[in-house]
Amino acid sequence: MSTLQAEHVYKVFGNRPDDAVRALEGGGDRAELRADGATAAVIDVSFEVEPGQIFVVMGLSGSGKSTLLRMLNGLLEPTAGRILFDGQDLTELSGRELRRVRSTKISMVFQHFALFPHRNVLENAGYGLEVQGVPRADRERRAAEALALCGLEGWEMAWPDELSGGMQQRVGLARALATDADLLLMDESFSALDPLIRRDMQDQLLELQRTLKKTIVFITHDLNEAMRLGDGIAVMRDGRVVQQGTAEDILTRPADDYVASFVQDVDRSRVLTADAVMTTTRPHRPGVDSCGCPTVTADTPLADLCAVSARVPHPVTVTGTDGAVVGSVPQDRLVAFIGDEQRAPVRCAEVAA
């Protein structure tokens, strides 16, 4: 069962929101509704997030992504549609029940850190546990464990203004992890950081995800960030999801000109993997398993695959997690896919040496 589902969700602000939803369902125009005093922020959005998945919602400012996120934990009530969390309809919960779900099962990581300046790092990391009523000794232990996971061991007694921006964001992430919530909602969480720290935080999140396997909804306006983090991606425009799929789907099969314009400057070699270009036919070469040449796996980035392809005189062998051969990548196919110039390979013996 999916951890999180959105089913035909609408959010309209302003005059007669229910009438606006009916107009939108009948093909009404968003601009016409605005002229009547209604702003359609989210329009007929549906998606599912599987357990342990990072689901990225991306779009420009005003696309509706942050409004959508706030409906996922009940901070905003949908005008129409349902939000299901672990099979439970959040739109039917009482205020008290919803607060309990938010305090124990859903955590949020904000864009601007939201740390308390009068609390030290350990106290900030344990704040969610304090709200839950967890005894002090237990919450300090769990907060310290979360800080260690985020690379902040030894900084427990520091104050927020003693930390860099990246470290402060790590405290915010540790606070979310300390509650052991099933679902993390991350709203432009890295966008206030400079590019190098931002990439470090992306690395940190991916490393944590390999260990913790949390279910995460991540909001961003940065396509490269979306492509790097997302197991699944939804692209929003003017309140609607215009395309949903994997990074490979969106890069290689954009749904319309709007999505195509988004992806045109993306470095495909850093996003796509060998799986996108390999043939599933096992290479018929004597000694393929013992020639000494390097091999790749299906999730090897194309940039790394190119480096291997330039060093071997035959199609690059692709292996599975068990080491068995699952396919190969001929050099001409790789060159055609990325539009690069072919580089002359060396002999197997030279690679083995």
TrEMBL record:
> What CDD domains would the database entry show?
ABC_Pro_Gly_Betaine
**Pfam families (UniProt xref):** ABC_tran (PF00005)
Q: Which UniProt keywords apply?
A: ATP-binding, Nucleotide-binding, Transport
Q: Which organism encodes this protein?
A: Streptomyces yangpuensis
| Domain ABC transporter as annotated: residue spans | 4-263
Recorded hits in Gene3D superfamilies, A to Z, give: P-loop containing nucleotide triphosphate hydrolases
Q: What is the designated name of this protein?
A: Glycine betaine/L-proline ABC transporter ATP-binding protein
**GO molecular function term, any single one:** ATP binding
Q: Cite the NCBIfam families for this sequence.
A: proV
Which family does this protein fall into? Belongs to the ABC transporter superfamily.
Q: Which PROSITE patterns does the annotation name?
A: ABC_TRANSPORTER_1, ABC_TRANSPORTER_2
